[in-house]
Amino acid sequence: MGWLITKYLVTAAIVVAASELAKRSDKLGALIVALPLVSILAMVWLYVEQQPTEKIANHAWYTFWYVIPTLPMFLLFPWLLHKLSFWPALAVGACITVICFWLFAVVVKVFGIELIP
Questions:
Q1: pTM: predicted TM-score of the whole model, two decimal places
Q2: What is d(CA 69, CA 57) in angstroms, rounded to the nearest whole number?
Q3: Residue-wise pLDDT tens digits, 15-31
Q4: Cα–Cα distance for residue pair 77/100, rounded to 1 Å
Q5: Distance between CA atoms of residues 24 and 32, nearest Å
Q6: What angle do CA 16, 22, 24 make, to 5 degrees?
Q7: Residue 108 to residues 13, 22, 54, 74, 115: CA-CA distances in angstroms?
Q8: Pick from 9, 12, 30, 82: CA 20 to 30 A from residue 43's CA?
Q9: How large is the angle between the packed helices 86-109 and 71-83, nearest 10 degrees?
Q10: For residues 64 and 16, what is the distance between their CA atoms, to the nearest angstrom?
C-alpha cells in the first residue's frame, strides 16, 4: 500500500509542478507537459515492479501510436477557445480526438497495428 501511495504522490507532484510552471511561462509549461513524463513514469513503475521487458516495450510502442491521433486537438483547441468558451471548446476537442483516434485505428489496422482490442 505504501508503494501505491508513493506512486500517486510522485506522479501528482509532477503534474502539479507542470501546471504551476505553465502559470509562469506558457512556452516552458507547454514544453514540460509535452515531454512524455507520464509515459516515462509508467515505464519506471513497471520496471521497478519487475514487469517483463515485453510489457514495458509494448507500453512504449502503443504510446507512440496513441499520441498521433491526439495531436489535431492541440492545433484546433486554441481556435475553438476563441470561438467558444473553455468547456465547450474542450468538449469539442475531446470529440475530435475520439474521431481522429477511431479513424487512425482503422487506417493503421491495414498495416497490422491493432490499436482497438
A1: 0.75
A2: 20
A3: 888 889 889 998 888 88
A4: 14
A5: 12
A6: 115
A7: 35, 34, 21, 21, 8
A8: 30
A9: 150
A10: 24
